[in-house]
Amino acid sequence: MNFTVMKATQHLIKTKPKPFAFNTKFDDIVTFIENTKYSHFPVVEDGIYQGSIASVDIIPSKTKTVDDYRYALLPYFVRKDAEWFEILEKFAQFDCNLLAVLNEQNKYVGFYSAEDIFPLLNHTPFMKDAGLAIVIQKHYLDYSISEIAQIVETNNCKLLGIFVSSTENDMAQITIKASAGNINEIIQTFRRFGYEIVSEHNQDSYLNELKERSAYLDKFLNI
């Protein structure tokens, strides 16, 4: 890509279809909601964003308008200068597929669609560059991002990306992407620092040794 992700993100702001108004009738937008499959859609009054109405609240009705659901409007928006990762974070946080875009005065600028934003991940080194992917696990109070980075880099690898992919039962699961290197040495170093290796790797000498011992034991027991 010859332009930054930031510029690419702003380039993806849509201004059509136009946002709803409080006097917009449900019968006028039922077909629109069904065809677009948007989870929410912005509501604007005098150019100022008022919130987003959920598509599940819109039912065929000749009398109901958006104003009848004013109390249920949701603040699903990002600022115009939001960086791409913040936009992705909001999509995940709100579990929606459309985000209104506002300026600093809360004036409505347009909206982002999830189907336009998520492909930006494909252009990041984490997804695009070849390398090693490892998933590790440790108690959420004990893991350290700086320690993880140090383990990768002391094994002559460059860290391409790292994120906490899961937190359940007091355990943090961390996904790591690193440049090509000796994955067995990296894995064994993580074990020495108390990390559990969640992902499976053919080059894992520790697991290979366990498998060999298990196979030998099975053979011995079957004699």
Report on this structure.
The chain is an alpha+beta fold. Helices cover 33% and strands 25% of the residues. It contains 8 helices and 9 strands. It has a 4-stranded antiparallel beta sheet with strand order 7-8-6-9, covered by helices on one side. A 3-stranded mixed beta sheet has the order 3-4-5. It is elongated, with a radius of gyration of 25 Å. The N and C termini lie far apart (62 Å).
Describe what is shown at a glance.
With 223 residues, the protein is α+β, with helices and mostly antiparallel strands. It is built from eight helices and nine strands. It has helices spanning 5-11, 26-36, 84-94, 114-117, 125-128, 145-154, 183-192, 205-221, and strands at 40-45, 48-54, 77-79, 98-102, 108-113, 132-139, 159-168, 171-178, 196-197.
Instruction: Report the average pLDDT across residues.
Output: 85
Low-confidence stretches: 210-217
Q: Span from first to last CA?
A: 62 Å
Shape: elongated
Cα gyration radius (Å): 25 Å
Largest sheet properties: 4 strands, antiparallel
* Spatial strand sequence of the major β-sheet: 7-8-6-9
SSE pattern, N- to C-terminal: HHEEEHEEHHEHEEHEH
- Beta-strand percentage range: 15-25%
Main traits of this protein?
alpha+beta, 8 helices, single chain, three-stranded mixed β-sheet, 223 residues, 9 strands
Please render the helix and strand layout as text.
Elements: H1 5-11, H2 26-36, E1 40-45, E2 48-54, E3 77-79, H3 84-94, E4 98-102, E5 108-113, H4 114-117, H5 125-128, E6 132-139, H6 145-154, E7 159-168, E8 171-178, H7 183-192, E9 196-197, H8 205-221
Parallel strand pairs: 3-4
Antiparallel strand pairs: 1-2, 4-5, 6-8, 6-9, 7-8
